[in-house]
Amino acid sequence: MASLLLEPSSHSTTKPSFFSPKLHYNVSKFYAFPSKSTVFPTLSSTPTTTTTTITHSFPSCAGIDSPSPIQEPDPIMELGLDPTRDRRRVVRVAWEKLVRWSRSLRSKSNTDVLQRTNKVVVLGGGSFGTAMAAHVANRKDQLEVVMLIRDPQVCSSINERHRNCNYFPDHLLPENVVATTDAKYALRDADYCLHAVPVQFSAAFLDSVADYVDPGLPFISLSKGLELNTLRTMAQIIPQALKNPRQPFVALSGPSFALELMNKLPTAMVVASKDKKLANAVQQLLASNHLRISTSSDVTGVEIAGALKNVLAIAAGIVEGMNLGNNSMAALVSQGCSEIRWLATKMGAKATTITGLSGTGDIMLTCFVNLSRNRTVGVRLGSGEKLEDILNSMNQVAEGVSTAGAVIALAQKYNVKMPVLTAVARIIDNELTPKKAVYELMSLPQETPQLEFAMVKPG
């Protein structure tokens, strides 16, 4: 945009030395707001008499004084333009449009679902089941939320003290949350069911309560993982255990720690269902001013990402426990994301689901934050503790431990190479030490540069 000339300008009054080059700038090229009457000269490398030239001379080694630069008026200031003010105006207008759009959609949103809902049953009394029970109960004071719990002590704590003594002893639950050990009472006349039983125990539990489940009761699965022996997801376990292939099903997933949900911190999740109307209904039931709910039809993608991220979190924890550094952590997690995407897409999932909120979003939360149970298992493994001792000291289920073996079986079924997740399964089976696993991963051939760890892309 500027012509750098070594010969003197026609405006210069002092002959420059060899060490005093002149800088000439074509002023007319710098401004994008000419009036209609303004005529700009044709641009060229040689200054013309019609082009305003600013001359700047650098001091020479010979000590020749340089002339003062010619002071030219600033056309932007002459036109009364303020770039900062204009930029702020553009940002303000864009934000106001976004706010108006949001208000318009909220005014048109259908709240009939919440108004028509009278009873929600929650299966399981763990941390996330409790957090979701409290969240739904806060949506409507007249809504009856019943938690079906095995432990009579926890049941009494919720009914008498409005607290879950095992997981949230310091959090007061809404008064419309009640607990019971009676499956028939809990499931009677329920409009929605939140399933929060760990995956490995779900089939047996559902089989025991199947007689009390209405065939049209929508199940919203909060459980993440794969059944160890059958490789089934919750979308397969629930209808098969209830002996009803038409049982309405929704998968709920996304980056969401139960503690933060209980504290009403901003959270975003995804509900996935083959039935678009059902997904929209669950969205209306759960969405609030601190919980955003997106909808998806990709049930496979949401469930596979939710299951495999637990295994990857164990790997991330191992890296942390071994103090391998941030470079190693970034390499491992990005490789794990690729492996999850390869398997999920082979199973029919959409790649955009894996890179979205229920995929990458959940992976980031689980791999990098200390509240993650699976990451904690990995940290302790990397520090040298035995898996048996770790699990015996925990009061919650780390789904990644049982899911790891199922993931590898699934990868073999779909012919997908998964070095990181396979290494985790080997460590859990006590067939490989964390140190040996790292060495083996770093020693993999590097013949395919476009893929991490030189694994052949599946398919």
TrEMBL record:
It comes from the Eukaryota. It catalyses: sn-glycerol 3-phosphate + NAD(+) = dihydroxyacetone phosphate + NADH + H(+). SUPFAM superfamilies: 6-phosphogluconate dehydrogenase C-terminal domain-like, NAD(P)-binding Rossmann-fold domains. Residues 119-278 form the Glycerol-3-phosphate dehydrogenase NAD-dependent N-terminal domain. One of its GO terms (cellular component) is cytosol. Belongs to the NAD-dependent glycerol-3-phosphate dehydrogenase family. PANTHER family: GLYCEROL-3-PHOSPHATE DEHYDROGENASE, GLYCEROL-3-PHOSPHATE DEHYDROGENASE [NAD(+)] 2, CHLOROPLASTIC. This is Glycerol-3-phosphate dehydrogenase [NAD(+)].
